[in-house]
Amino acid sequence: MAETTVHCTIDLDTPGKHVGRLELPRSNNTSGWSHQFIPIISVKGEGSGPVAVVIGGVHGDEPEGQVAALNLSRSATPENVRGQLIIVPCASMEASRDFTRLWPTGANLNRSFPGRPDGPADEQLADFFSRYLFPRAEIVVDMHSGGRTMLCPEWSEMHWVDDPAQRKQMVDGMLAWNSPFHFVYIDVGGTGLLVGEAERQGKIVVSTELGGGGHVHAHTHRIAQDGLANVLRHFGVIDGAPKSREELGLEPPVIVRATDMENYVFAPESGLWETFVDLGARVKKGDAVGQMHFLERPDRPGTVVHAACDGIVAAVRAIAPTTQGDNVIVVGREIDAKELL
């Protein structure tokens, strides 16, 4: 395979703290020769602890992880890092500036993995992550939220993976975030996810959906930042003893599993979405969870949407304008962590 087209301005093997950038080739109407800059930070201590790659902003309209990664970038020092932290605060810089999920080209970086060096820009960046960052690491943290279009509780999450040892480590990492909810899911929006490639490489992968709806509360920032730090302590990447929710005086978390297609409810028609249920509500199969309205037909009754299974409402569409096939509700089954082991 060809060498990467992405240039990293810092040596990731050098001890100490280094702030640099990834330079991704681009050409546009205002500059035929141009590079897109993507900040990268390496903090390497003197110890023999594990390497963690921490990534925010894979989607531009999800600032929660970007802010958490930026705060970590400033607070981490070689003295408090036992192994190495490699931090990419925002992988999709142009999308973040525009506050959009996708790149200006329409590319979804989270459907671009494992990427290829001779592909479009998103696949070139994905290829660099897949071949030059992930292989260095034991732990990969990929922070997301519901963005502008989805509301969900603040949760850490994981895919179901087949390898029992890898899955046990991922469950422990997910729980170490100390979020009030945890979520186990399947891909319903296609393949090519960052976490999927990291899992394929055998990494311990911890991900999140930290709220959403296009706004961020102060408590969401606290969950993002405190949870990230606790996960890194749990795996011995940074100094300090991790704490559990019980030790912090918090209620036990709710763990929701949504690994069947019936957990995901899609709009049967295009129109204006109205939800009937709130996050965390418990519903039964057949319960009305919302309806679609039709502006051009004010005389037409709304089309009622029903839950396809029993469970807890884990996510609700955040914006009313909805296209046929958009996910409007996620209903997951509450489980005990032992079911995941």
Automatic annotation (TrEMBL):
SUPFAM superfamilies: Zn-dependent exopeptidases. Keywords: Hydrolase, Metal-binding, Zinc. CDD domains: M14_ASTE_ASPA-like (cd06252). Residues 49-234 form the Succinylglutamate desuccinylase/Aspartoacylase catalytic domain. InterPro entries: AstE_AspA_cat, N-alpha-Ac-DABA-like, N-alpha-Ac-DABA_deacetylase. One of its GO terms (molecular function) is metal ion binding. Its cofactor is Zn(2+). Pfam families: AstE_AspA_cat. This is Unannotated protein. It comes from freshwater metagenome. The lineage of its organism: unclassified sequences, metagenomes, ecological metagenomes.
